[in-house]
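notes to self, project folder thing:

trying the whole complex as one job this time. last attempt i did each chain seperately and stitching them together was a nightmare. two parts in total, labels are on each line so i dont mix them up again. if this works i'll redo the older ones the same way
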Amino acid sequence: MSISSSISTDTIVALATPEGEGAIAVIRLSGSQSFSIVQKIFKGKDLNTVSSHTIHFGKIVSTLQEKEELIDEVLLSIFRAPHSYTGEHAIEISCHGSRFIVQKILQLCCAQGARLAKPGEFTMRAFLHGKLDLSQAEAVADLIHSQSELTHKMAIHQLRGGFSLEINQFREQLINFAALIELELDFGEEDVEFADRTSLTKLIETIRNKVQFLLQSFVLGNVMKNGVPVVIVGKPNAGKSTLFNALLNEDRALVSTIAGTTRDVIEELLIIDGIQFRFIDTAGIRDAKDAIEKMGIEKTYEKIQQSAVLLYVFDAKTDTKEDVEKAIEAFAQQSIHLIIVANHCDKLIDFELKKMPSNYVVISAKKGMGLQELKAKIANLFHSDKTLQQATIVSNARHADALKRVDHSLAEVQQGMDENKTSDLISIDIKMALSALGEITGAVEVDKDILGTIFGKFCIGK
Amino acid sequence: MFPLYDVIVVGAGHAGCEAAAAAANLGSKTLLITMNMQTIAQMSCNPAMGGIAKGQIVREIDALGGYSGIVSDKSMIQFRMLNKSKGPAMWSPRTQNDRMLFASTWREMLEATPNLDIWQDSVNSLIVSRETIEGVRTSLGIEIRGKSVVLTNGTFLNGVIHIGEKNFGGGRIGENKATGITEQLVELGFETARLKTGTPPRLDGRSLDYSKMEEQGGDEDIVGFSYLDTEKPLNQRCCWVTYTNEAVHALLRTGFDKSPMFQGRIQGTGPRYCPSIEDKIGRFADRDRHQLFVEPEGWNTVEIYLNGFSTSLPEDIQYKALRLIPGLENCKMFRPGYAIEYDYFPPTQLKYTLETKLIKNLFFAGQINGTTGYEEAACQGLMAGINAHQAVHDKPEFTLSRSEAYIGVLIDDLINKGTDEPYRMFTSRAEYRTLLRQDNADIRLTERSYHLGLADEKRMFNLKQKTNDVDRIKEGMKTISFDLGQLDEYFNEIGTAIIMEKVNSIKILLRPNVTLLKLSTYSKELEELLRGVPRETIEQVEIQLKYDAYIEKEKELVMKASSLEELIIPSTFDYSTVKSLSTEGKQKFIKIKPRTLGQASRISGVNPTDIQILMVHIGR
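result (full assembly):
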């Protein structure tokens, strides 16, 4: 059954802040009846006369019983249609953050004719009123769930239409390309100059590069959303778990001096410099005899495969530079950032410390020495990443999937051009690319745009 | 004097003739009314049929049992398969025709059609009662009763002809305009608007110097339009190509201050893809020349059609400018080019059957719907004629989908998107382009028309033979393989890598540049399989096998779009309650009442958000 039949008439209400106790809570209403519903439970100004984007103090009173009962003192933020998030009349009630008060106010609103909103319904209304396009609406969900500054930035950028803008640019370029191809097909008899294949090939190459760049950003965007995996590896007893705990400031992992204590992998989230990281502690790597430990080591290798950053921790007291180099050989071919961490450096004398290669990070997990430097080094890997410098990062799996199909179709176009296929066949692949792009922003009508481009640019007609 | 007709067709141009023929052939008692019996099936503009996308339409008309293909074949003076260097979906037949022979052939065929009466008169009003058409009234004051009426008025409704600063009423040069009908339809609630089109001057061929032009001959092999075995000419006439130059442009510019277009005397919109020469010079000022085609008007006439020089500038400017064109230095004009403005009715007021939404059993076809081109007009006439017959005999409507025919694309575009410039077909308008080819129109359409009762036994017989042969050959090829070395000579010749093992013949055919006919010369078995099979059928096998992968891809593309086609919008759906729709979207939906979300998405002025909103509202 559709939820729509009632959509434009109902007024919805919901708690906009997280459940639970807090200093304040915000309850939001949206719909044509927002003002009259709140008016019935509000002692203060006449809401019909106040203007949009103003805040008003007053009291919420229960009129359910014969005697009026004061529930809370609140602030009302007034938004008049269409100048609200949803595009409808809307009110935000800022009350004190007690579960009881929130429940009571929600009940009162419902008693006066509002109904509880379904998940995402405010955003859906915003979408239905043309306040957001599809990709923007998706960004709202991301924004709500963003846990670090960077994911927040990505979502905000998408919400402001940055991503749609970029996609529309591709679309425009591809339409131009399609127009050139179609020109040859529909106007083959006309006296117009047809684009030569070399420049068409170049154009496709340029677009494809950009699409791939965006796709790469998805790899990053995705890890950003879920936390960049940082895997801590090393031999048993190198102090991995101590480092893990020191970084996270808590006794999360089991620490002991018995080699092989960590038999499973342990993960924890940590935000450094606005980027969310997922630190993963692993079992030490050695030739284990214990079956359970063996499984732990297998898991370690699995995690290494999935990592974006690898922290190789070694005991600076016992291991030499040669030992380290030999050990990291196994990880060297992985396309991941490798940071070599020399632990137990509190126990080294100056002379030994100076011998340490400059790219090693010198720490003592136990004493908390060098941890800030290590954190900075990890964060810097990403702040200096080129993909992060660009405005648009793809973080939505649906978008990434569509872009993958765009890339695939463009590859077919390239192949078709290489094989000197006729334009009508190449055109099919371009249209597939355009259709995949359209899935992201919802722009569908292609042929009219193509013909419009042709008529605008070429002198057609006998 | 007149019986009660099943179908009355007003106008005897390409649309009217097809409509009358279809209705009469289906068994309707039909009357064709024309202002002038001498101008039945006039080619008012260029003496040619077909071309890119249009040639496909003519073949579709023929496959459905219309006459345009046969008439074009019988009256051609030149045949060319355009776009032969592209894939088979792009191949487009085009004929240069003898203008007079074309018209007389049409008239002979109409005269030979049973159930068809012809009456020379001008219709100036419709008889409408209770929102149903009941007949027409003519300028002679006669009331003719009919259960249905097909209006194919072309450019005649309030037509105004412009040449320089002169303008006068007329439906074609030398012919009267038609009045009264627009005014009555507007009163009945129809919307109307103006369009404009133009035509170039006609020249005296005896005054041209062809040695200064490039000759353009016809194809050696004449394919033609009809799937029936029409007689093809033994020899052909050639056309010529010449070009304008800066001097021509400069001279034409001296007449711009008298141009009805630039002076704003013409209000109607002209086609962007068929601009006048002054428009080309104005809009593409950087081009120093424009191509012109010098086309003979027939076997036995010296009259020349100057394709590419459509103009409404004053006749003396036309004349002076023409004389600056290579080969035309001493040219004489038979008549000047001119522009014509006429009424049309935005086609969003029509149903898929081309019946008007406002008046039951009243159908519109051709330029009255805002289209341009003989082929576009003819196919609408055919569909309107068929559906008028179906309607008055309580039979189901006959419509074609976008995946079945260019005709389906055309009508779907018209009734959903409407048009604000004369609408011409392009292959890029069809999303199923690889499927809608000129070589398979019979396979796509003939059987449907046969069941309708229009395509005859002969057509059905030809089709069955073709499809049986195709299936038999495709099946046979599965077991024919080529051995190592067997094709080395052939592959060296076409420059493709030789085979290193035994390979099946179908796989070999998929290679670029390999043709089935040539391949068969290297295999006794294959040669045997193809023996006695017409070349067109062999070509069909080749195309089907070679382009199968692309057709599949195209299908995938369209399936994605057509998932919207399956989302039915209830006919009772009340758009006015959906506040979030854009105002324009809402108005369009209310007016057009789309049946499906797919149809809704193709309405012009509707933005993607409107569709997404509708999707949410009809419950996904």
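what i see at first glance: Residues 263 and 296 of chain A are 5 Å apart (CA to CA).
need to look closer tmrw
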